[in-house]
UniProtKB/TrEMBL annotation:
Keywords: Hydrolase, Isomerase
PROSITE patterns per record: PG_MUTASE (PS00175)
Catalytic residues as annotated in Swiss-Prot or TrEMBL: 10, 87
Catalytic EC class: isomerase
Gene3D superfamilies: Phosphoglycerate mutase-like
Gene Ontology CC terms, in alphabetical order: cytosol
Single GO MF descriptor: isomerase activity
SUPFAM superfamilies membership: Phosphoglycerate mutase-like
Identification of the protein by name: Phosphoglycerate mutase
Species: Lactobacillus hominis DSM 23910 = CRBIP 24.179
InterPro entries noted in UniProt: His_Pase_superF_clade-1 (IPR013078), His_PPase_superfam (IPR029033), PG/BPGM_mutase_AS (IPR001345), Phosphoglycerate_Mutase (IPR051695)
Gene Ontology BP term (one): negative regulation of glycolytic process
């Protein structure tokens, strides 16, 4: 039996608000983030889930509990953390100013200093962007495409084991990780790196098939669209 997968991006955090790089580093949800998530949770309150998961980062854990507490039609046990679904790791850039970080990444990729990440990715492609990030990182700890792709495979493999026999699950994950999943698994992306960054509290829907194949069928569904979803 295929499993329907709802991927929810966590709510806005303090680092989001302060324009800081946030991968494996963590910061608390803002008041706006919590209020926006309450709308998402209300829109999903009548959707039955067999199980809910989150990455092991606190902003995702706090988000999934808001989803769980608002749901009126599911009997959910303990939330399990799936570390493979955590955000992309930005190494030494964690907590730094985003604009200054992208300037360094652009230069490492052979471009002029640029603060617009979409322009950088459009020129380099997502794989070279990851390599440039690792190169620009003074300690070269940031995840490159190969490392991230391996972790995505681990995430889907783990989910395949976890979700056997389940009809629908919810996982709270992170913006760059969800976007990268979409580049790989969303038919409309067709392998293109030109995929919009998912909004805080948005829902991306996927199907996990019995053979372990995963596909994304709806991407970055916002609250005003969830009402009629």
């Amino acid at each position: 039996m295929p499993t329907e997968v709802y991927l929810v991006r966590h709510g806005e955090t303090m680092f989001n608000q302060l324009n800081k790089v946030q991968g494996w580093s963590d910061s608390p949800l803002t008041v706006k983030g919590i209020n926006d998530l309450k709308v998402t949770a209300r829109n999903l309150s009548q959707v039955h889930f067999d199980r809910m998961y989150s990455s092991d980062l606190k902003r995702a854990i706090d988000t999934v509990h808001l989803m769980k507490d608002a749901n009126e039609v599911s009997e959910l046990g303990k939330i399990k953390k799936l570390p493979a679904f955590r955000e992309v790791f930005f190494g030494s850039f964690e907590g730094d100013d985003i604009d200054e970080t992208w300037k360094k990444v652009a230069v490492a990729g052979g471009l002029k200093p640029e603060t617009d990440i979409d322009k950088i990715i459009n020129q380099l492609g997502i794989a070279k962007f990851r390599e440039a990030t690792k190169k620009a990182d003074p300690r070269h700890l940031a995840e490159n495409s190969e490392e991230l792709d391996e972790r995505m495979d681990q995430a889907i493999d783990q989910l395949t084991q976890e979700a056997q026999g389940l009809g629908r699950v919810l996982i709270v994950s992170h913006g760059d990780f969800i976007k990268t999943l979409a580049i790989k698994y969303w038919n409309q992306a067709n392998g293109s790196h030109v995929v919009p960054f998912p909004e805080n509290g948005s829902v991306t829907r996927g199907i996990l098939h019995d053979n372990g194949k995963f596909e994304i069928v709806d991407y970055n569904i916002k609250n005003n669209e969830l009402i009629n979803f």
